[in-house]
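Try it yourself: sequence plus flavin-adenine dinucleotide, in.
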Amino acid sequence: MFDYLIVGTGFSGSTCANLLAEKGNRVLIVDKRNHIGGNAYDYYNDHGILVHKYGPHIFHTNYKEVWDFLSRFTEWRNYQHRVLAYVNGKLVPIPINLDTINLLYGTDYNYFNINKFYEKVKRDILVHNARDMVVSKVGEELYELIFKGYTKKQWDLYPEELDKEVTARIPVRYNRDDRYFTDRYQGMPANGYTKLIQKMLDHKNISILLNTDYKEIEGEIKFSKMIYTGSIDYYFDYKYGKLPYRSLNFKFETLDREYYQQVGTVNYPNDYDFTRITEFKHLTGQQSARTTIVKEYPCGEGEPYYPIPRKENRELYNLYAEEAKKLDNVYFIGRLGKYKYANMDIVVKDAMELIDIILKG
Ligand code: FAD
Ligand code: UDP
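Structure, out:
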């Protein structure tokens, strides 16, 4: 008899498992994959390079409580992610900053007068969607150069068909700061994400079952409550129809050279079928004579990596969320359980809050 059945060993499920086990609850955590860690899973490939199986993951947060909690399970490698975009034959910093403008336009704006450029190009419009979000800050030309093609590739939708939050993730800078994130706490787990999550789950009150879809064992195992971090539409047997997700094909290449590119990630908004190339050694700091890169090819079918933020999908999700509310003792969280385009820190924060509520309950 378990107090909790937790479905999914990603950051959501593992955070819940750890916090519940610490309070003396007996937890069974299951995953249909053959490993723990969810989409943050990393491993050493055949060439001895630490890679992220489901795409590059960089940790960043402004939530001290999340940083402190995760720091119980790992040391951090100090890392600030940097991204360049290949545009008009040049590599320019992303998010757009002072140097992006000067490089693209051959200008020499400085910190004190760059506002003149932005004032000239930005549009005074009401922001309804992901296109407006960009155009209101940098105008049509930079939107076309950096956002339109990338977004169409990534989502198979034009930015005007997506919620404004999608492109709001990328700020516009009036200075030279070329870091992708400016959160107070940033870094990479010193020994990788899988090790971090392994440590979270390493508790006498936690049992782990891999290679198991929870539906295979639900009837056979006794438990009081369930925390579900899989796709919410699957839980309800798609009774209202399938929620759309965007998937990716990852193409890994290991090269016989020390480094492939200057920075962690290079985006290709207007060239190739892939969106970006990431070189893991920049993220992990690993030393090797070889290097592994990954190209991300967006696609429709496959693992549900990205909930697609737009009105009709939210409405469909809300039908499932209403069903979920009717259930006693089943809690839905995580990127898939809440159909929410959330980073790792947000799913950890949500999980911490849920456990707080349950334990007070
Ligand atoms: P998941 O990690 O998806 O875990 C859910 C788990 O549930 C999976 O292991 C799955 O196998 C299991 N499961 C599902 N259904 C069942 C079932 N029926 N039975 C048993 N098990 C089941 N976030 C950042 O903060 N920084 C980044 O740089 C970053 N980069 C990303 C890059 C990519 C390409 C992607 C796709 C995401 C990225 N994210 C990043 C987001 C990050 O992956 C998520 O925030 C985080 O992994 C969500 O954790 P989760 O536990 O909610 O879900
Ligand atoms: N985006 C873009 N061009 C870029 C970078 C981002 O158009 O060079 C848009 C695109 O729609 C992308 C979104 O901004 O999906 C969010 O980017 P982010 O890098 O946060 O995506 P993620 O890492 O979650 O895939």
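One thing you can check immediately is this: The chain is about 35% helix and 20% strand.
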